[in-house]
Every structure is written in structure tokens, then in C-alpha cells.
Amino acid sequence: MAGVRVSQVLPLPAYGKHQEGGIVTTNAVSYHICPKCSRAVPAESQELFCPNDGTKLLTICPGCSGLILSPYSQFCSRCGHPYISSLHDAGD
Rounded to 5 degrees, what are φ and ψ at 87? Predict the structure, then answer.
């Protein structure tokens, strides 16, 4: 791959403005997260269900409707709402 630029090999994320609840953000990438197993995928992949366990992916924060900006997030950085459900705690 000598002489090949990274932009020729990997597609660059689309930058743009996103309207969310009256607030305009300019983020490069947002994510969908599985509330059961924490699997995250870029929103542009358009996956709606987790291939690991079949759970519907979160596309926005359930607390404030903000975009999920990090694949490592466990809580919303805007409102603090948890992304991962505590299904295992329901039986205790």
C-alpha cells in the first residue's frame, strides 16, 4: 500500500449539522448502541438490531433525545441517562 493515501482506502466520515431538540450540533459520527450488550456501530451503518442478541439498538439517548457521540459511552454526556439497561438486576 505504498503511496496510497488513507482517504483512498477508508471512507471518511460525513461531517454535517444535526438538528436535535432545537440544538444544532456538528458532529462527525454518531453511534447506535445495544442497551443489553453495549455493542456500538456507526449510525451510518443503518443497523437497527444487535446481531449479538437481537435487541433493538438505541439510536438516540432515551433521556434527552441527543445523539450518541461515542461508541464507548455508557451514559449520556448531556443528561446522564444510562444507555445500558439493568436487565440482570430485575431478577434480584
Answer: -65, -35
- Entry pTM: 0.62
Contact 40, 32 (CB under 8 A): yes
Position of cell 438486576?
89
**pLDDT, tens digit (0-9, with 9 covering 90-100), for 13-41:** 444 455 555 555 554 689 999 999 999 99
- Which residue spans within the chain are E strands per DSSP? 18-20, 23-25, 31-33, 40-42
Distance CA 28, CA 55 (A): 26
The stretch 56-85 carries a mean pLDDT of: 93
Q: What is the DSSP string of 38-56?
A: --EEEGGG---B-TTT-PB
**Is residue 20 classed exposed, middle or buried when 0-12, 13-18 and 19+ CB atoms within 10 A define those classes?**
middle
Q: Provide the grid cell at 85.
A: 439497561
